[in-house]
Amino acid sequence: MRADVHHVADGTYLVHGSNTNWVILTEGDAVTLVDTGYPGDREQVLASLAEVGSSPEAVAAVLITHAHNDHVGSAEYLRATYGTPVYLHEAEVPHARRDFLHQVSVGTVLRNGWRPGVLPWVVHALRSGGTMHNPVTTPEPFPAAGALDLPGRPVPVHTPGHTDGHCAYHVPGTGVLISGDALVSGHPTARIEGPQLLPDMFHHERPRAVASLDVLAELDGELLLPGHGPVHRGPVRDAAHRARERAL
């Protein structure tokens, strides 16, 4: 299956999976993979690595923004098959192990089924493994504070609210912000396009998700790579402010 890969900056690729994005950061023969789509996106994950001239063996680490199944889909596969370390914020590690699950409930989704786009999204999520039990057996907290010693030198930025341990990744060298679900530019269930929060039902603690936009607004960058939606070009600060305005 061909992956929808976009070269967006030096050594940086945004990949559109089935309703979810992931990012590949390259440095020589090694890569950092940020998020891994749904479990059903595995062929696309592997195809995207091949398209940028890499392979699963060359993945130095998988970084996870948060441990929902549409972002952590192939993390355990890469860890178990290739020994790839899987790193998250320390507050997200037990979530990845499935000690608990911060995720929209079936009941909440059904109550929102009348909203445009919700039912098609549910069907897709079910078919892609969105509700399957898919833990990462041995997820690890970040090995050090600050920039990680990985291709791209990404800097984790704790942005709680969507989940307790949600992290964005700032890549100062290229002006890139990998925002996960803390700041998106679209979603099948959203009614608007451009910088925004996901619909309210998806956040574990919406007030903290809104507050995390202020954290993102402090970061320098001109390229927003969200967990959902297309690449957004322009100051990250302005994108975060726009999303906050829309959330109030």
UniProtKB/TrEMBL annotation:
SMART domains: Lactamase_B. Coiled coil: none annotated. It comes from the Bacteria. This is Beta-lactamase. The lineage of its organism: Bacteria, Bacillati, Actinomycetota, Actinomycetes, Kitasatosporales. Residues 19-228 form the Metallo-beta-lactamase domain. It comes from Streptomyces viridochromogenes (strain DSM 40736 / JCM 4977 / BCRC 1201 / Tue 494). PANTHER family: METALLO-BETA-LACTAMASE DOMAIN-CONTAINING, METALLO-BETA-LACTAMASE SUPERFAMILY PROTEIN.
